[in-house]
Amino acid sequence: MPVPKHSRMSDVARRAGVSASTVSRVLRGAPGVAPAVRARVERAAAELSYAVARDASSLVTGATGRVAAIVPFLHPWFFGVALSGLVRRLRTVGLDTLVYEAGTTGELAGFIGELPLRRNVDAVVALALSPDPESVRRLESLGLPVVFCSRTVPGRSSVCVDDRGAAADATRYLLNLGHVRIAYLQSRDDTGFSWSSQDRVSGYLDAMERAGTHPQVVTTGPGSGGGWRATAELLASDPVPTALFAESDDVAMGALGVLRRCRVPVPGAMSVIGFDNQDMAEVMDLTTVAQPVTELGEEAGRMVAALLAGEEAGRQVRLATRLVVRHSAAAPLDTTHRPTRTHQPIAKEPHEP
Amino acid sequence: MPVPKHSRMSDVARRAGVSASTVSRVLRGAPGVAPAVRARVERAAAELSYAVARDASSLVTGATGRVAAIVPFLHPWFFGVALSGLVRRLRTVGLDTLVYEAGTTGELAGFIGELPLRRNVDAVVALALSPDPESVRRLESLGLPVVFCSRTVPGRSSVCVDDRGAAADATRYLLNLGHVRIAYLQSRDDTGFSWSSQDRVSGYLDAMERAGTHPQVVTTGPGSGGGWRATAELLASDPVPTALFAESDDVAMGALGVLRRCRVPVPGAMSVIGFDNQDMAEVMDLTTVAQPVTELGEEAGRMVAALLAGEEAGRQVRLATRLVVRHSAAAPLDTTHRPTRTHQPIAKEPHEP
């Protein structure tokens, strides 16, 4: 059967309108290329299904042509999107991606204990993996370059967002709308796995402390089910919060679900903010912190290529987030949750109605 | 540093309370083992992070110890869940999973054209990949065992649900509630990629034809955005359907979103049914067809192991679906979409109010 013609570096250069040496620099992750040019080259390489011919090229110095992506779970929204960015980016430099699920420290230990991994891959990307010292030590025991994605570890190569700053901003947004009783919903599963960066809850606590208000951190199960249960419990508390900041959109969706079931007006009686900006956030009209998840995966792939090309480990990249304002958060009505026409102004010191 | 002790087959046998030969039979996918025993062995193997030592074992006859999972996209819910089942199942027989995104026939061609794949993997799992003859031919040109997951191809090894039967059942459910104008929402993206099995729309058409009612198939973009746009357009049509059957929960969520935005009561003025039963379906109180997605991935992994152990290709496995009745679908009120107290009985021939 006819095998499709393989694209060459010169084809990519022509399509991107740059020199072959620029293509080479981009694909090996070298610095000093303008972001727009880099994006054009990567797009051209992807469109041409260009893969660096491993044996004929010194672009990637790894021995196996494979990278291990270790994820705690594959099913949540975040991982599919990040993995997509990573897999596609690594393909542009001729690297394949092996995917492993190892959520808990114990699973990670068992996984790393299997010697074959050391012969199987050139580098490891740890996607949203708990950066506890034991796990980091185990990963490094492999003797391979490691890139942390969506988590920061001091002195290690990583790409993440400013979880702390973004969470503080979102909390301040609620405070500035006039909310005082703002609960933070965070997820843990049975294994103790933390479903989002600890920096996120720290940012919330920072902002609450600066405002002189009492924080309320509620720990619940993962996903929308966790958000549902935590919010149901909060509706039975006294006093009820007027705003919920969920560590992820999944958790926020669960909160919105139970609020709708209970006919608690959103944002009239309860404001809700999420974190992620997944597709469903728009459908649910959820105000949320948007993080560039595909780009997190892509940048992790770029860092892997750079490390394999000889870059020293330890570079830390931070991608920007932004607050996407929709209709799930507004100034609180009154504090008894009865929908009245009285409302507090957008100010930290609510006046008496 | 201390490397954790490797588990042996005898450890797995002891933990599962079976003989080592039973462990061997289960892990190489041999038939004749009771499902409960098989599950116990697989659980024990997973708990012990047991991996077949490739060089010391004839359990898996492949040369590389790797399987390629080809997915059209990684970000939708379905793929993370199916991949999770596949990756975990393959690990129990010591196989690693390489993940590739190749959604379109063109991408698949480029991908398969890259010779390295032939040396890189022992088998291929095509996850929800279009089974058009050209793609099938290209996959088979690799000369490797191929398992189709969530799609059926005549004569090829596959695992799927009965999309046609399940869709016909869901359609009949709406017909039996008294709906006549039932629109089916299906997704296509720019590349022409079909986001669900063509058997699904066929099942809808079957049921509508048998009931003597006119079908209305609306083709839209993928995901919740597609569902949103299609439903918005339907609200401007005349006559408006009284029920929507969305090919996936994602599409159904978009429909629910726009209906809520437009204050169209669900199920009062519009019933909605989805397909998948993802987590959000419960939150959104969506009536939907539940398919066992993790199990689809697991079964695909089991079939790969069996093929590598010498089983002849061509076995087709069908997993069961079930209709999960929630509150997004009910008997239609009247045909003008005004919420009145008049309602039609649960019957195909509505009587006059």
Automatic annotation (TrEMBL), chains A, B:
Record has Transcription regulation as a keyword: yes
Start and end residues of each HTH lacI-type domain: 7-61
UniProt-recorded Gene Ontology molecular function terms: DNA-binding transcription factor activity; transcription cis-regulatory region binding
Location of the region described as Disordered in the Swiss-Prot/TrEMBL record: 330-353
Gene3D superfamilies: 3.40.50.2300, lambda repressor-like DNA-binding domains
Pfam families for the chain: LacI (PF00356), Peripla_BP_3 (PF13377)
Protein keywords: DNA-binding, Repressor, Transcription, Transcription regulation
Superkingdom of this protein's organism: Bacteria
The protein, known as: LacI family transcriptional regulator
